[in-house]
Design brief:
Layout: H1 3-31, H2 33-63, H3 68-89, H4 98-122
Length: 145
Amino acid sequence: MPSNDVRILLQAAVPTAAVGALAAVVSAVVAGGEGAIGALVATLVVILFMGIGLYVLQRTAKSLPHLFQAMGLMLYTAQILLLFIFVAAFKNTTLFNPKAFAITLVATTLAWIGAQARAHMKAKILYVEPDSSKGDKPEKSGHSS
């Protein structure tokens, strides 16, 4: 991954992990150890899903730039659907508190999206990559007198 992509990944993952840690503390106070486990699992799921999604999106942007916007919309839709599937699959689990899991899942997803949007707005990404390897001089096209 280029350094700019890693920077964006870190700027999204760190606030998400902070929100997840806060949610784990709150869940531990409210629901005990099961709540903390649910919050930690939800945080890991969000960081994993969104991190993989960001990686796929950045690879698509570099290899198929004309599909970038459509791929982004499809990717976010797929991620939200997969997160709903996780909530549905673990709603009756005894391994952790499902309410803490679901609430943390929503909170960390919103934190990731907000942090990623902020990181992209702050990033100084060239829209056109200059081709400095060519040393050709442009030909004169006008009248020379």
